[in-house]
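Worked Example 4.2. Consider the chain below.
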Amino acid sequence: MRYGVLGPLAVWDAEGRPVRVPEAKVRALLANLLVHGGGPVPADRLIEDLWPSCPPGGSANTLQTKVSQLRRVLGRERVVREPAGYRLLLTDAENNGNSRNSRNSGNSGNSRNSGNSGNDVVGTVDALEFQELAERARAHREPAVQADLFAEALALWRGPAYADVAESLFARGEITRLEELRLNVVEDHAEARLARGEHTALAAELGTLVGRHPLRERLRMTHMRALYRAGRQGDALRSFQDLRRQLAEELGASPGPEASTLHEAILRQETRLATPAVGSLSCRTNLPAPLTPLIGRQEAADQVLARLDPGADTRLVTLTGLGGVGKTRLAVAAARDASGRFADGVWLVELAGLGATSAPDDIAERVITTLGLCDTAATEPDLDDLVGWLCRAVADRRLLILLDNCEHLVEPVAVLAGAVLSAVPSAHLLLTSQEPLDIPGEVVHPVPPLTLPEHTDPPAIARAGAVELFVRRAAAAAPGFVLDADNAEAVATICRRLDGIPLALELVASRLRTLSPHELAARLDDRFARPDVRVRGLPDRQRTLRGMLDWSWQLLTEDERTVLRRLVVHADGCVMASAQAVCADAGLDAGRIPDLLSRLVDRSLVVREGDRFRLLESVAAYCAERLTEAGEETAVRTRFVRHCAESAERESERLRGPDQRRCLERLDAETVNLRRALDLAVAQDAAGYAVRLVNAQAWYWFLRGRLTEARRSLRTALAAGGEAAPAGRVAARAWLAGMELRFSEGGTAAAPAGEDPTAGVEDPVLRARLQWFVGTGLTGGGHHREGRRLVEAGLAGARAARDHWGEAAALVELASHAPGREASAELGAALFVEAGDRWGRLRASRALALAAERRGDGARAERLHREGLLMAEELGLWTEVVETLTSLGRAALADGGAERATELYERARSVSAERAYSAGEIRAEIGLGHAARLRGDRDAARHHLNRARAKSHASGHAARAEAALADLNPPPRA
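Applying the procedure from the previous section yields the following structure tokens:
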């Protein structure tokens, strides 16, 4: 069970489904137990809290009745009675009778849970998770990461804490504490965003919050800095004067020294207040942070860096070399050093997971995903040329794209590279591949192995790149190992024998746990002198790596070999659960996999990155051969496909609950593996698994805006050979129909009138949701009657199946297109809050805001739009962000707030430009033109409207821009 107290009291089961707790007193009992964090609460205390000043007759029996009702909802084992009182057991460990000693005497926010580690408890109560995320954010030094973690923490709040029992005395202290923690995190989040350069947005957003909390000096100071950096020095000074006045009137006090110092600095316009250069690399790149320093490659990195100068003629550099030589590490290091040269970022696009039959559009789709443009691309009708769209989207950007592992995709990569270089004059490409593209403009930079020692004296040996790498890895594997006069020559022999190949050196370094350098050198001499390691047709250095891999393989136990070769089925690494599901079978228990995997990591055959395990390129190629030799390909691939289908189905339902954001992140991480699973299912004529995979991912694709991938994958699964459940095929066709409607111009892909594309879907919950999904697609395409018919059928079906999520979605959709149905939107919003679905809350807030606008309640509309804006930003729905900003700008114009409207439209234009959302840019320019006109600046208005007209020559917005210009310049009177 998971409990939510940051808003109305909520309970979710292990699958993320809401659990209804009936009756107010039962909910109050649960809230009371949660306030005490799982600690014991005496019965007389509960009676006093639940029935203050008027306990019922037979109060002990009445309390026992309420406890029994709560047990029926949560499970009898979760609410226990002890000598000290009633307790709510928050974790399974407690339910199994584990340690029951109280951790501390805190409250629900301080994890006063009995006998559980903090990590066990954190995931069970949203208040604890909120604090854990905030602590992680404060421990991080990167503003971008801090801002994301603070945003994730704030996103857990669904309303005022303990909203159901806000008037109860037992909850007031905890509510006050949590609200103070929330405001601290709001201030932390604002400061992190300010460090990222988001002063314009903060200047607009923090004004309302400062109005609610006018005496919070830290919040006020952040707002003052944002105002100053946004060019509003006068407003920043007036804000300080307002703080001074309110402190004097309410508290008889003066601003603190920090606020006074900031005020003086603003008066003097001190340079330290200027917008800082955004040194946070993670704001404009996805390059991984280096775990270890670059060894023996600094000169090569400098050479590559010199070729990446934006002023140079070279815009395509390909690093070539054999597998395991270190191409990727060198490319990432050079790209990181070049990050300051590319205003629009440096982006790593990993291609190893793409199949050899991939087309240029597949690679373009991977780049679009990496750049975060999926949400925008999904707004384009009939988007069939992804390469062309990508080129248009980044045409004005100065960026560096690193395409890693291109050797199996040379031809499609060459097509994409040629298109990007031709259409994007400020784009640079850096590639790693075992062979060049051989296209005009390409500069090939061979990556040789690390330098070998040329002399025999220890200082000279130590300076060789291969020796430095080997010594570092050996010291990590065998603590205390150092290079000295006694072992220097043996180390030099090892490095020469391995030809300075980094992967081979890393594989062999771990052997120093059991062998001395002299023994290891002798083993290598004996190993490579044998004829069985001479593989015909391979270059000498490739033979060296192959021999090293053969030796490492032979030193493994049989079970270690089994796990290693089976891991190769994962196209993009895996988490432990996936490794267990795929590698275990009747002869190898899943419980042994963690230990075996740990040993493979120790031997450098498996790389661990966070919670994921992956094989290096050369090791993966070797293991693929071994998997084939073992005759296990079919069985392992089948287990992999089955596991992917089952895990995707589990995540699918969680996408509609409180775990939505983390679920999206998990599916993001598994995207390449899920694509591989679909490819394998189709290749094996396993249509059943193929259909299950696409049905489980359809909602994820929609939320992420990956409609191109959704349409292609659904078509592929439906065309697959083999048997599949008829109901599954019908569901896949319905998902496809909904996706097609969102692709087509004007809804030309509409379903035939009178037909229900969901007929034949057996699951009533799924059918109702699909009716809503297809119906909204029809409505968006202008087919209002057909769309409304399906959405209303979905509403009836959801209510019959008691699916609150489906009911909420249908209610909000119907309210969005029918004035006077605000009550439906309110109910839908409440149901989405209960489910914990932030996407649903965003949709509901927009419907309610539109209703408020229609009846002239501008204040409520603005509040709802701002709530929706935060949720859209948290979920990364950037087109929604732009639409909400323009709605706020439009409301500001209606109120005569030209300056406020300008800030909002400027932000909308900035986000639109960053996300290549041309329709949003046009609307923002038109809004800026109207705001300039309201200020009386006709020249600025004409400038913005002409820009909108220039951008909208091929879109439906041209008429709006023309009309605004005509209104600005009326024809002369006769």
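The two ends are 77 Å apart (CA to CA). Residues 98-119, 277-282, 530-539 have pLDDT under 50 and may be disordered. Compare this with Example 4.1 before moving on.
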